[in-house]
Amino acid sequence: MTVSLLALAALVGFVLASVLSAGEAALLRVTRSGLAECLADAEHGPEPDPRRAGRARSALALVVEPTATVASFALVRVTAEVVAIAAATLLVQQAIPDPPSGDPVPELLVMLIALAAGLGVGVLFVRVSPRALGFRRPVHVLLALAPALTVISRGVARLTRLSVPRAPSSPEEHRRDVAYRVGESEDLEEEDRELVRSAIELADTIVREVMVPRTDMITVAAGTPLTKVLRLFLRSGFSRVPVVGESVDDVVGVAYLKDVVAAVHWPVEDGAGPAGLRPAADVAREAVFVPESKPVDDLLREMQTSASHIALVVDEYGGIAGLVTIEDLLEELVGELTDEHDTVAVQEPEELSDGEFRVPARMPVDELGELFDLRLDDDDVDTTGGLLAKALGKVPLAGSAAEVSGLHLTAERVEGRRKQLATLVVRRVSPVDGDNGGETGPFDAAGHPPKYEKEAHA
């Protein structure tokens, strides 16, 4: 009688553990869309199956909070495995006959035999085979085991509610769980998984993390003539620029390239004087202001609704912290946006002529000095682009130039939506350059503007 009970306990324990192991694997692999499709087919398909539909509903209920459900299954599975191994150990002890000497069977021998048998059965029939089945056919496994798994899940839930009050899961936890499940899914391509993860995590990203900081903003003074504003658009490559008053915090509005072009080339006869001399404030549109703590997904929806493409970001003290465009928000979903004018970034210095080099903007200052056999040391900046920006006192635009420590630095190309400086042309200062003394303008000796490699686009 005792042997039969022990054998039954071991068998039930191993069977229950294998069922839960398969259920765990299926629950980690299955998707709600797959179960929802199965439910729709069972309810409204060519051959409705109420029983299958009920199992599909039970399976869908299990995946509402998969982390908690898997944890409850693991608790019961481990308990079942312990009971099964304990029963198997006692069963082995009962099955081994006593030696002729009459001494009891050594406990170590019993434990070794039980351990070998338990590991063999446990690994093969509890861990490997059921889990492989659950991973291969998650929907079928969940539908088959849904009634038993539902009973176990509810039983554990009641016990946990009696022992420890359960806090409701927050939307953030739910999003993180969904992002994790998407990342583990092999039904989607890597690019698709990354896109879904980015969309889910968008709600946890705030505007401050994606904005163009105040120090990198390009602005135009409210009294600047429209001809100069148009020239700034061409040099910077932007199509929208904030118009400011006495300081960056005094935002008058936003100037749009198309409005400036229309005002200059198709002026309205309103007695305001020459069109090109009108101030930028005359064509500035009303600016949109958003707090830096605003979630990116909320701002994206608002910008879509209002058809606005740029917003000024305000910090907690009311000052301008930066600006953000709709492209900045979209990059959080799809990655860096480029166009046909973007080129491969220069990584190494390129000699253009005798003593003249094209260098990347991120080239360290000390390496630039080594290139020209000079000792360049600046505690304020680390890169060649930073060296030019410091000499200019502003963000470099294409064509901007300055002399630093015997070198003539010219901003050659900006790229990317944010029009960041990409390359510079550097040469030693010639005697003719020395007469200029300081920054040179964006025009060549013939008075023509340089050729820009970027078109204005947002």
Please tell me the total number of domains: 3
What integer is the average pLDDT? 76
N/C terminus separation:
83 Å
Sheet/helix structural class: alpha+beta
- The number of E-state strands comes to 12
Order of helices and strands: HHHHHHHHEEHEEHEHEEHEEHHEEEH
Low-confidence stretches: 162-168, 434-458
Number of helices: 15
Shape: elongated
Q: Give the DSSP E fraction (strand runs of 2 or more residues).
A: 5-15%
Q: Strand order of the main beta sheet, please?
A: 8-9-12-11-10
Radius of gyration: 35 Å
Helix content: 40-55%
Please give the largest β-sheet: 5 strands, antiparallel
Describe this structure in words.
This is CBS domain containing-hemolysin-like protein. It holds the Pfam family CorC_HlyC. It is a multi-pass membrane protein. The chain is of the alpha+beta class. The protein folds into three domains: 2-166, no CATH class; 208-334, CBS-domain (Roll), CATH 3.10.580.10; 350-434, Uridine Diphospho-n-acetylenolpyruvylglucosamine Reductase, domain 3 (2-Layer Sandwich), CATH 3.30.465. The chain is built from 15 helices and twelve strands. It has helices spanning 2-29, 32-44, 50-62, 66-95, 107-136, 138-163, 171-184, 190-201, 226-236, 257-265, 296-306, 326-334, 365-371, 384-392, 431-434, and strands spanning 212-213, 220-221, 240-244, 251-256, 289-291, 310-314, 320-325, 350-353, 356-360, 401-404, 407-415, 420-428. The strands form three sheets. It has a five-stranded antiparallel beta sheet, covered by helices on one side. α3 (50-62) packs across α6. The chain is elongated and about 115 Å long. 30% of the residues are buried.
